[in-house]
Amino acid sequence: MPLLSEDDRNAIRQHFATMENTVSVTLAHPPEGAGDSGAILGELAELTDRIRLVTAPSPETGPPSITVGEHGRVRFMGTPSGYEFSTLLTAIIDAGRTGTKLSPATVSFIDGLSGELNIMVFVTPTCPHCPGAAVLAHRMAAASPLVSASVIEAQEYPELASSHRVMGVPRTVVNGRYHAEGNMSESVLVSALSRAMASGRQDAFINLSEFIP
Amino acid sequence: MQFHLPQDNPGSDSAVDLAIAGGGPAALSAALYAARYGLDHIVLESWQPGGQAALTALIENYPGVPSVPGSQLAATMKAQALEAGARFTTETVSGVEPLGDDLMVRTGTSSYTARTLIIATGAAPAKLGVPGEDRYYGRGVSFCATCDAPFYRGRRVVVVGGGDSAVKEALHLSGVVSGLVLVHRRDTLRAEPRLARRLLDCPTCEVRWNSTLKAITGDEQGVTGVDLDTPSGVEHLEVDGVFLYVGTRPATDPFRGLVELDARGAVLTRNIVETSRPGVYAAGDVTSNGFRQVVTAASDGARAAWAAFEYLDDRRRH
Q1: A126-157 residue pLDDT tens
Q2: Is-contact A20 A97, C-beta < 8 A?
Q3: β-pair partners for B6
Q4: Phi and psi for B60 in degrees, rounded to 5?
Q5: I need a labelling partner for B141 at 20 to 30 A (CA). Which of A138, B101, B113, B259 fits?
Q6: B-chain residues near A124 (CB < 8 A)
């Protein structure tokens, strides 16, 4: 019995039909198996020849993680179900197309970076707000070799979530220090992050809402 | 296992008869009717499919659907609209300006010329404005039990409010947390009696009547407690989470100056869906209409699509 319904498969085929390039999708999974993530990706790969799926057993324990694109900067940690399925699909479809959907202001912020940005976005599958924050982080990562983004299903990675004091989702954490609560719009997140980074503050926990213009 | 799909940007065809802003039941119903009327339209859905309905754990009063998770009801509505030919895009309206008899609808990345517009952007949870609320947002303070309940397994929480949302979400949380206190400023619940009864019967739930939340306290890790103003004085409760359901704030920022708003910031409507500007309609929780339910939002959406259809028909004839 497939996980995706026939209606979903048809809708996904239409999305995939807009992809111009082949996208490499890598699934790293613990020795005990690839679980639902493996099943979901397997079903997606059947719907298009634009996905090159590589399944790689990993020595690391913990739930499977998915990397979209050869560069390895767009990651999804945990099972992409519920609202997070749309995050994974968007990452794959974006990678199959040329160009970016980021605003010019975001692109110029990324182009001006002098160091790396490591973005984590904590999510739950029942959170309709979460894909907005998750897709933004993935698009920023896809746009520059200096940016990487991991979307993390918080329930499957409870220790990682609690080490960043996550008690609500979506939570965006940049370079382990800058924290954004909720689904901030692209322009608000990027301007707050840019101001916070320019402030030179080095505290371990910086709330980006203090830097909203 | 549920799977939600993203929407595509149609790109080039950026002139439409009708633009629908929003993604909740009002917008989905407007989309269904617009598609069936054959209107050339686009639904600018933003990044919150299903609107507030999708944040509701269980909806039990939508006629014809006995009891259903809000996200599932919204997904069914959307599937029905798509089946009818509705066209969606994941874009957020940032502003609208008049353009002759038409409208220029701007989103973060593109713009659409529309002859008519349905504002169905809904509402966001309102803040209480107490100390600690902003500081601990995301670290114990939440406006979304559906999103954040898993973080409170076996912990103690307070829920503030006494309406349908507060009581529904308290009941949802009561299945996860070790203890729950509902804080309500009146001596009876405003929620529909059936829900209220269930909360009063819930063994892990307590209610503090005639009480208000004065402050949220915490440490570096997050919320540790709340201070309540109760009839018997100030009471401190040790809790890990605070869920706020104290009303909503209509999402009308992009429409300021385009249509008249009421004192709450809601789109002022006459005849349920008409705004102060001809050709611009509003539906659901974004309006000044008094009763805000999924069924009334769906009804408003249908009326708004019909009104847009009639308006366009009238414009074509004259």
Answers
A1: 998 899 999 999 999 999 999 999 999 999 99
A2: yes
A3: none
A4: -120, 0
A5: A138
A6: 147-148, 150
